Amino acid sequence: MKKLSSTSRFVVAALIPVSLAVTLITCQQQEKQAAKEADLTESAVAVRLAPVTLTELSIPVQCAGLITTEKESRLSFKIGGLIARIYVSEGDVVKPGQLLATLDLTEIDAQVAQAKNALDKAQRDFERGQRLYRDSAATLEQIQNLTTAYDVAREAHKAASFNKTYASIHATSAGRVLRKLANEGELAGPGTPVLVTNATAAGSWVVKSGLTDVDWVRVQKGDVARIRTDAYGDAVLEGEVVRLGEGADPYSGLYPVEIAVRPGDKHLASGLFAHVEIVPAVKRSYRTVPVEAIIEGHGHEAYVFVAEADGRTVRKIPVTVAQLYQSKALITSGLDGVDRVIAEGPAFLTASSTIRITE
To answer: Which of 116-123's residues contact partners 24+ apart within 8 Å by CB, and which partners?
Structure first.
């Protein structure tokens, strides 16, 4: 075996400490890196990811209103006078054509008699004038004036007789008396409501409510509705949108809507408060995420956190939330190209946080 020269032995002896030093430094760096990674792992926020799903939904429209009938009549006398009799009370069932109230006819009968006497006189004058005209004892102008006077008297008698006919109130349809607004002996003015009735025929019950402009554009005639009332607890009545207002109510700012109610075997009454859920026929596409993934919500604007490709860092992105539906948040924008969001632990994250993904 060839012996090393003294120079070689010196070089080897010099390299050994250097090699040991390099090895020691490398080990220290590895230990520091391992400690650093251990610290990062220990301080990392444990999170759980949830998938972003694309779905088509028809979000129900919620509203409330009062149950009433499609035909609610405010009955009144055509002419004024003293109320002689009111034959019904509030809550009474009425039939079509039933007599409900009458005026005192003393003054009205006098007006009819006066008009009849004026008509008889005009008719006698007209017939006498015709005889005189045939005998050339009256002029054509006189005959024309008598004809006009006769026609006026006839129409005046017709008007007085017509007014007497409407000096009584009759039910316009089968239903119930909701309210009695006057009593016997009171003076009723022309057209002043005396009784309020409704039509209780099958298919006449409706819920009258109002919609915001955002909901109004989503609802169409024929959309299915589910109606609940406090009177019947959790019982659900079927319904259908039958009328949509084309203009907003000037007082509430809401757009009127009427929902026809099919009561089934339930007994309804006018004035019952109803909760209505309308299911629009038109569906819309949404990206859905768990509600827990939404943070810093303000109106329809909010944020979600997503994990970066390294699985350790996060990114905070803004989203637009259409609505919270059941346990999901419906997102209309902001999640393009995102397939998973952080659904558990986002409240503890910042843009510089380190995460640890758990199953």
So the answer is: 116/157, 116/160, 118/153, 118/156, 118/157, 119/150, 119/153, 119/154, 119/156, 119/157, 121/153, 122/146, 122/149, 122/150, 122/152, 122/153, 122/154, 123/150, 123/153
